[in-house]
Amino acid sequence: MAEKFTLFDKIWNEHVVCVPAGRLPLLYIDLHLVHEVTSPQAFEGLRVAGRRVRQPERTVATVDHNIPTEPRGTPIKDPIAARQIGALQQNCRDFGVPLFDMDSSEQGIVHVIGPELGLTQPGMTIVCGDSHTSTHGAFGALAFGIGTSEVEHVLATQCLHQRKPKSMRIDVRGRLGEGVSAKDLALGVIGQIGIDGATGHVIEYTGEAVRGLSMEGRMTLCNMSIEAGARAAMIAPDETTFDYMKGRRFVPRDWDEAVVRWRALASDPGAAYDATVEIDASLLAPFVTWGTNPGMIAPVDGRIPEVSDLKADRPAVERMLEYMGLEPGTRIEDISVDRVFIGSCTNSRLEDLRAAARVAKGHRVAPKVRAMVVPGSQAVKHAAEQEGLHKIFLDSGFEWRESGCSMCLGMNPDILQPGERCASTSNRNFEGRQGRGGRTHLVSPMMAAAAAIAGHFTDIRNWRFR
Amino acid sequence: MKPIRIHKGRVAPLHRANVDTDQIIPKQFLKRIERTGFGEFLLFDWRRTSDGKHDPSFVLNHPRYAGASVLVAGKNFGCGSSREHAVWALEDFGFRVLIAPSFADIFANNCVKNGVLTVVLSEDEVGEIARRAAEIDDYEITVDLEQCKVHDDHGLTAAFQIDEFTRHCLLEGLDDIGLTLQHEAEIAAYEARHAAPISPI
């Protein structure tokens, strides 16, 4: 009987350059995405060693992490941020790397523009000095985050020494209910397997609920997989994938041939995984995180759990609740918010903005709430404006800003003040992530928009759409 | 990269689970384009009060752990962001060895690239080392990468596992870009067989 391979095996095997004796396999990298924060020391390392970028045509850079979301052309007030952006511009010039700069119509969050431009393709190996590189796995690519030393390694060699991770299949049965989004599925997975539940593994998502997701939804799901510790996550490409990609700028010119090749990128029936997890989609609800890691979730119609009901150790949970300013037993819908952030590489694509705008339409942001919408890219911003989504947001009292990572990690001026509570469509609710003392609750775009209007979390399943 | 073979040093306990890299080095320090000088910002929000002063109640600020070069921590240490600045901060602060029940993948890779050894021991062993660090004055531990063993002067011994390539790189302090470039012929052959999948940019 022929050997059976998973999708992950197939991509891995295709990219092993050689296995030197006594060393880890050398893996070829098809696409290297670069941004301003994790690359300056890598380029400097090349300079010091007198090395060049081996494959500038497989390398693409943009600015996203530290840039302001004020109107373009506004001078960057933070001199250290400006210097970091200047360093990337200089490095791209010196080493011949294409850059989608601040003023480019292609600029955006690196994990939004890769797919949007057709750079992200099935079967590829993709790396970036950013943990959310797992996003690109939505196209059936092997995509993972690396540190700056590895960025330098890829720039110099287009390869990485990698130990082959284990494989994990997460099979999502049934369908997601009304008001339950890909974000809720992602949070549900993390809640079930834990924030280190997939450490050392590459996840492949399968099942009816996953097949039913749009590419945007699949990206949200793969994006958050790092929050379960996964090395990468992937979904086999299908018609949904090809429909999304067709006509995009950097897709292969021999399109039909490429699609034939990509169709073979599926796990063989009966292929073995190191671990398998089953999720029942019909049991998922719109979730709200209440702690300081993404595994601490509660359904919006639930309550903050009692400390004794949790597996985590007591001091850790008590510390979390103290940081978050919450009491066990509190109804989630009774938690009010000060700020709302709709954006990030998790939830800033056109579909996310459409979902939030549908909720916001005809309503007003609650008086005490400051709510901002930060599109993932200039292309998303432009497309949203073509549809009039910005009008809906502005008329409802949301701020409509320029593209970037923004308040997901608060490297730019968009941060929470100490004690402020935020409903955020981003991916991490760690202590201080959005600003020292800031309290982050992770939710879907619909839930975030609804919280902005109600002034507190509210069940989107009961929303009065106008 | 500095080789590491046998390291003996003072132990500081940060016995919490899931210490993320946002905590280890907060975002405001990631704008620097240098690779050095991150130590003073290590665990900034925990080590310092909101007015920027050292918080005497935080474990790493306690005089008994001054000069520690071994950090013992809870499971899933280094989870979250891929920022290598977290390792640069730990290393610049003086840590050469980290001991925990588990480490996040990207963080562990980043440690190897900087000559920082991550030692995985059982929850019980980690708990015992953390207890001894807190209770025994001037508590030191010896980490022997040649033998893959840990021991102290009070009878504790433990063995750990590490893959052979990582061990080799750490023992020799190897620049692995140099190693990879020895395979120029194989890489070039691979590239000749695989056309770039992206239309020209």
Describe the structure.
The complex is a heterodimer of chains A (466) and B (201). Chain A is an alpha/beta fold and 466 residues long. Chain A has 15 helices and 19 strands. In chain A, 31% of the residues lie in helices and 16% in strands. In chain A, a hairpin with a 7-residue loop joins strand 1 and strand 2 (26-28). In chain A, helix 6 runs parallel beside helix 8 (215-223). The radius of gyration of chain A is 21 Å and the shape is globular. The mean pLDDT of chain A is 97. Chains A and B meet through helix 2, helix 3 and helix 5 of A and helix 4, helix 6, helix 7 and helix 8 of B.
Biggest sheet overview of chain B? 7 strands, mixed
Oligomer category = heterodimer
Estimate what percentage of residues of chain B fall within beta strands. 15-25%
Q: Going across the biggest sheet of chain B, name each strand in turn.
A: 4-3-2-1-5-6-7
Query: What is the mean predicted local confidence, pLDDT of chain A?
Result: 97
Number of helices of chain B: 8
Identify low-pLDDT runs of chain B: none
Main beta sheet of chain A: strand number and arrangement? 5 strands, parallel
Describe the structure concisely.
The complex is a heterodimer of chains A (466) and B (201). Chain A is α/β, with parallel strands linked by helices and 466 residues long. Chain A has 15 helices and 19 strands.
